[in-house]
DNA sequence: GGAAGCCATCGGGCGTCCCGATTGCGCTTT
DNA sequence: AAAGCGCAATCGGGACGCCCGATGGCTTCC
């Protein structure tokens, strides 16, 4: 039963029988009959089929909610028993927005320091993907913006508020300024993240409120590209404080704080809401709370 | 896996391998190996064993929480799919405190009127048992006091507040009084419920606050016994309004309202807290809300 | 019209589950 | 101290279900 629910979840995620089977390490016929049997046991058609996968039926959508809950709880049961067997151990999968990667790294390092038998996978993902992956049980927790998208049934632990810095070469005209207003950035050659990324949308809003348009001459989905561009030309970019400090370190770059908008851009840890928490997840939430920059 | 979790829950409930097996309709060896396999799969000893059942280990206690969640959600998945297949149908098991039985009856009747394909089992139980049975998945919902014991992870729907009446024969000295104070009951020959029942404890408290002792000459765990005693002798009893009206109807008995203590004694529907609700349970909660006596 | 992709079905081998019978252990009784 | 009894574990077998590779029917894309 649980195995079939896992098949169903994989199928809903992959939207394709073959790929779902591969992702579970079974063959396509096995998955096919598994879904059929699940449908028989529940007495309901879950999947719209032609000769191709055609999406879930309405009943399938409802069943998916329960399936995720059941399979998730089953994994949590296993995890917790393993933890009680061999101490706090296991594997945590995190998905993190690019601008919070240094924080994720710190969090993972500190956590691993305290609990050496817990290992990590840290993926860089867009904020919308993080919520999907949480739903699909592909990750155990994420780090993302807490105040933009509707978050759903999750627990959050605030970590910090993003404040931004202009990153430019040491020989740039603005390099020696103490602070800057967003309004002063209008005439610069900007490298920014691509518009589908939340961080870029936040920056766009700041520009808009300053009466400017955030026209980036170079866009990328990687912060490394942004900084390396700044190094090689007379470009500038805008990055959160911590990440800017990390990427600029040891390079001939200057960082100039931008007037911060304290209302928003709160970043924090996001985990599935559940009762009770497994020891490992509880420990992660605790570690995040310790790490949180005091407001 | 789920089957084994059901075995584990049954074992925790029955505290006895043989009885647990019978309650599941399987043999004792099957249950025995099932538990063993569950322990192997989780890598943890769940049950303390000598040559007898010796209680759950601490890990077993923790695992039981998850097992109940998983098995409960699995049943809810099945229920919901059946509902979407053949409309609102199925079976609801309620456990109800004795003094609320008439309300339970009304609730079940009205619900069945609206949804004829849903059938009911209504059990009379003490309030503490109701919570245990909810935990053990033996019932789907209960009717009990909302404000006395700690309720745990449940949803509640208030139904009414208990107000009490003295029940006596028509020829009793107090039969014609409009109202009574608790303090006036000190000298009467009382039949009351047994002290382990919550209703009796509430009445005890009322007596205590009136400076009296609630010494019952006859005790029973059945309200039928109480009323039939009142009929045959010069006894009196104390019952909630609705139940008193029901039991006294057509008999030579008088009902005299007692000064009510509006603070407490709230009675309502109790169901496991869960997200989302199955259609049947949602409908029951809705019906309870409609039925609730306006405060 | 041919090729490729996709899902369903088929048949066989293997694993697992369940049951009845029996054994082994510990407590109680005499 | 020995017998009796209740309880859980173990054993051996028969049956069922699951998984896989192979294949077939259908659709879509060149």
TrEMBL record, chains A, B:
Alphabetical keyword list: DNA-binding, Transcription, Transcription regulation
Database matches in InterPro entries: HTH-type_LysR_regulators (IPR050950), LysR_HTH_N (IPR000847), LysR_subst-bd (IPR005119), WH-like_DNA-bd_sf (IPR036388), WH_DNA-bd_sf (IPR036390)
A Pfam family it matches: LysR_substrate
The organism's place on the tree of life at top rank: Bacteria
TM spans (from-to): none
CDD domains in UniProt: PBP2_LTTR_substrate
GO cellular component: cytosol
GO molecular function per UniProt: DNA binding; DNA-binding transcription factor activity
Boundaries of every HTH lysR-type domain copy: 1-57
Family from the record: Belongs to the LysR transcriptional regulatory family.
Name of this protein: DNA-binding transcriptional regulator, LysR family
């Amino acid at each position: 039963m649980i195995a079939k629910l896992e098949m169903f979840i994989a199928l809903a995620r992959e939207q394709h029988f073959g790929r779902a089977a591969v992702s579970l390490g079974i063959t396509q016929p096995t998955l096919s009959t598994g879904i059929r049997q699940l449908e028989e046991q529940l007495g309901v058609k879950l999947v719209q089929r032609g000769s191709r996968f055609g999406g879930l039926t309405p009943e399938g959508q409802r069943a998916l909610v329960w399936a995720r809950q059941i399979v998730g709880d089953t994994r949590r049961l296993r995890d917790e028993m393993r933890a009680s067997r061999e101490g706090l151990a296991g594997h945590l999968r995190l998905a993190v927005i690019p601008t919070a990667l240094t924080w994720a790294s710190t969090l993972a390092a500190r956590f691993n320091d305290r609990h050496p038998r817990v290992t990590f996978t840290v993926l860089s993902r867009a904020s919308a993907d993080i919520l999907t992956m949480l739903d699909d049980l592909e990750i155990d927790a994420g780090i993302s913006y807490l105040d933009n998208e509707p978050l759903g049934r999750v627990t959050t632990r605030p970590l910090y508020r993003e404040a931004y810095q202009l990153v430019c070469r040491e020989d740039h005209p603005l390099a020696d300024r103490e602070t800057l207003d967003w309004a002063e950035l209008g005439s610069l050659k900007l490298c920014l993240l691509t518009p589908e990324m939340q961080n870029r949308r936040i920056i766009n809003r700041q520009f808009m409120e300053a009466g400017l348009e955030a026209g980036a001459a170079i866009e990328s989905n990687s912060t490394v590209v942004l900084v390396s561009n700044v190094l090689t030309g007379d470009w500038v970019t805008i990055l959160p404080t911590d990440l800017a400090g990390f990427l600029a370190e040891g390079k001939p770059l200057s960082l100039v704080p931008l007037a911060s908008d304290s209302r928003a851009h709160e970043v924090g840890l996001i985990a599935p809401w559940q009762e009770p928490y497994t020891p490992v997840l509880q420990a992660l939430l605790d570690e995040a709370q310790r790490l949180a920059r005091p407001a």
